Amino acid sequence: MNHLLLILTLLITANVNAKPLEQQNQDGDEHKVTQLRQDFKLVAYVENFKNIMAEYVSSEYRHLTINEVEKVKATLEEFLHNFAKDLKEILDHPEESRKFVENRYQVDDGISDATFEEIKQRVMHEFSDIGDETANEIVYRLRRNLLWTRQKLDHIIEDSRRANVANS
């Protein structure tokens, strides 16, 4: 629900403050237009991964209580927030994010590196102004956030299964 509010706020703000594109270019606001497009792409990317995680929960377990569903929603919202923050940080300050590359740990998530290489290629295609290192950092942080979120969701699902068995 919060993500819809964010998108609506962005759209309303863009419409209220919008000028015709020609006038924006004349005013030298081309950078702002580019930034808004990039921010919109970021929201769409993060939202897509959040939806993938929601589908993961639905496929793994269908018997969640209302309280457990709320925990899942909160976990997915936290993923949305964390990944959006990481993306914004990487794209706004790529030189700062690169200094952490040496301190990375291997993300052991059981997903093939080829899957994330494909994601990297899509990111580089979508954001044509980023380089290989920046794309690697985006994919690394995505992978780290997905693993953390999946672990939390697995814990919620497992607790639910145990409670369901205990109540049977």
TrEMBL record:
It comes from the Eukaryota. Keywords: Signal. Residues 1-18 form the signal peptide. This is Uncharacterized protein. It comes from Parnassius mnemosyne (clouded apollo).
